[in-house]
Amino acid sequence: MKIYLDSVGCRLNQAEIEAYARQFHQAGHDLVEAPELADLAVINTCAVTAAAASDSRQKVRNAERARRNGQQAGSEQGEGGSTVLTGCWSTLRPREAASLPGVSRVVPNAVKDRLVAEVLGLPLDEFEVEPLERVPVPGARSRTRAFIKVQDGCDNRCAFCVTALARGKGRSREVAEVLAEIQAVSCHSGQEASAAVQEAVLTGVHLGSWGQDLQPGRKLGDLVRLVLDETELPRLRLSSLEPWDLEEEFFGLWQNARLCRHLHLPMQSGCKATLQRMLRKTAPEAFAKLVETARKLIPGVAVTTDIIVGFPGESEKEFDESLEFAKGMNFAGGHVFSYSPRPGTAASRMVGQVAPGVRKLRSRLMREALAESAEDYRAGFVGKVLPVLWESAVKLGPEGWEMSGLTDNYLRVQATASSGLWNQVTLVKLTGMDKNCALGTPVE
């Protein structure tokens, strides 16, 4: 059977899609890069914002439309093609999800780890033989990095967040499972070299809580040390971390150069009053002190963030306070979200909903502030030599290859090389800036 896999939203969703790829391949099925080529499409949906929910629905419609067009054009796609949905949006809105064109099954988050076994009618233990060979998802989802799900669910109850409702209570994967998966994706033995990754990203809904539910209890730092000590993975990256989970000793992990110098710390607002309404367990002063400590202990670290504008009750004064705080933090980048009410959350029932036009204006102002600080951060590395993991390589002709990749501190770099260096880490001297990326010259 030919399988098409796609995902909307966070890195955790991407990690789950990659796990499905390994399992379908293990069961003898082929992965294809387009829905019109598939007998079965599996889409991992997202509900974190109204836009993400809309994107999820559109993915389903597009997949069914492509499948039908492929049949009419006489493609090899079978007549029994269908779509299986999982993820946060389809879990929260199962009836609406099931009513979308072409959908044959909705698998809720609570049992999504058994999705492939149930779809194929196989016992779950068929896929519990570790390690499973990594199989990059074809098409746009083929990556040089592997996303490793180490935690799921969340015990926080931020007022705006629907993910905790969709994902349930926090729960951690055992150390042995995580290490086995990383060994599998980073090992060249028995694989094509292109299937082995140079970088793994540890991800979860509430990554910083990893280990708290294990017996005996552990900390995320314990897991990071074990990955660095017991695997030969060239680079390890951490996804989003809640600021209240981190202590000064955590930053000592970066004495190992294989741990990427990038901290994504969702701030959500730079106004104390807004943060209190959001039920966030931090305040601007504590957040600023944490970032100051991280920058002192991890030279050159990129600190990025998430910010919500237009949260219920956010006055002009509160927004101005948040904007000025964000400017003072000198972030290396970040995401700005205009608040959108999510059904079932505390914020959706709050008074003082901000008008869409006001949210749009505030979003623009905050994005401009983050873009300016990101440019300043990138400019500080011009003239320096940094390692780059090349994620794309396009043959230009006799003059060489056009390369694009990421430094360990999350700078996008473009360069021309004499040979294709895809999925390799090489040194590059940064020579200048161009829009949202740095320009570089490979160091021979």
Structural features:
single chain, five-stranded parallel β-sheet, 18 strands, alpha/beta, 444 residues, five-stranded mixed beta barrel, Rossmann fold
Q: Can you offer a commentary on this structure?
A:
With 444 residues, this protein is α/β, with parallel strands linked by helices. Among the domains are: 1-137, Rossmann fold, CATH 3.40.50; 385-442. It is 32% helix and 23% strand. It contains twelve helices and 18 strands. The strands form five sheets. Strands 2-1-3-4-5 form a five-stranded parallel sheet, with helices on both faces. Helix 7 runs parallel beside helix 8 (220-230) and helix 11 (316-329) packs parallel to helix 12. The longest helix is centred in the C-terminal third of the chain and has 24 residues, at 356-379. The termini are far apart.
Gross geometry: globular
Output mean pLDDT. 90
The percent range for strand residues is 15-25%
SS elements, strand count: 18
Give a concise summary.
By secondary structure, the protein is α/β, with parallel strands linked by helices. It has helices at 11-26, 50-72, 88-92, 94-98, 115-120, 163-167, 175-186, 220-230, 272-278, 284-297, 316-329, 356-379, and strands spanning 2-7, 30-31, 40-45, 82-87, 103-106, 145-149, 151-152, 171-172, 199-203, 235-238, 262-264, 302-309, 333-338, 385-397, 400-407, 412-417, 425-434, 437-442.
